[in-house]
Every structure is written in C-alpha cells, then in structure tokens.
Sequence to fold (98 residues):
Amino acid sequence: MPEPMSEPMSEQESSSPAADWFPLEVELKQDPRGARRDALVARLRERAAEVKRRMDQGLPPEGFSAMQRLQAGLDAAVRVVELVWARHHGYPGRPGGA
Fold:
C-alpha cells in the first residue's frame, strides 16, 4: 500500500505513469468512451438504492447511522469514478470530453 503523500502532486507528477497507483484508475484511463465508467457508476448507484431501501424499512439508530455512512461512501465513490475518468478524458462538452 502506498504511503500517504505529505504534499499534493504537481500537474507533471499527476500525469506521469507512476501516478497510476490504483488498478481502477488504469481501467478508467483506458476507457475513452466511458463504458467502464458508466458500468461502475450504475453498480454503485444500484447498491446505494439497496441501502436506501433498507433504511426505509426501518433500522435501530446505530444501524441507521451505519447505513447513512455507507450511502455517503457510495455517493463519494460515484464522484471519484467520474472525476478520475474526467481527469483522463475531459468533461462532456470540452476537448477530450464525451
């Protein structure tokens, strides 16, 4: 596991091959059409919907709190997937974008 970084990476460092620390980043980098991104986002959103259904059924306070944290983590994961993909391919409507 990489050690935590003490300083943010420079633009040059973040675009170097050594900056691809995670297999998911490599997968998203090799996904210019966004098919893998879309599949991951769909899976994460499906899981978030399952968590929401479970919360709607009623849980004890500690269980509800844990599910809220899980749902927040899933929402954050969606955002990370989208941002990592956009870092390599651009945002829709911009150069390099879909």
Q: What stands out?
A: Residues 1-13 have pLDDT under 50 and may be disordered. The radius of gyration is 17 Å. The chain has four helices and no strands.
